[in-house]
Write the structure tokens for this entry.
Amino acid sequence: MGRRHIVRQSTWLRLNFVAEEFESCSLSDTGLAAVADGFTKLEKLTLIWCSNATSAGLTFVAQKCRFLKSLDLQGCYVGDQGLGAIGESCKQLEALNLRFCEGLTDAGLVDLAIGCGKTLKSLGVAACAKISDVSLEAVGSHCRILETLSLDSVYKQ
């Protein structure tokens, strides 16, 4: 069995699950809401493989944590609504990892690009089966200062 690590510093929080074999984090939308309420000045949030976190939880984060600069959602089942909320509320977002986010479609990524395009510098979208050229066109049009676009399975911020 793995163990959950929570590291808190003044402006960032990292939640991840350490295990010998791949397991997912059991943090739910209720937990995300608590994080959002308790860390309103959060700048960096890492939720790798938190498969119980959905668009509802991500919407709480977007509404409360408007200073987010880095968000890692690798393997989370977030959808278009949650990503749209991030685009609408987190106008300082610079780095976003969406690798293996199976619930994401073009609609969510287009909304995010429109909302955060002026600040986004790094984006990872590998293994998102429902993402097409439509999303990449929106990223190209709205994310003018993008420095890193990762379409493969190795993402670096």
Summary: Residues 106-116 form the longest helix (11 residues). The two ends are 28 Å apart (CA to CA). The CA atoms of residues 34 and 49 lie 18 Å apart. The longest strand covers residues 12-18.
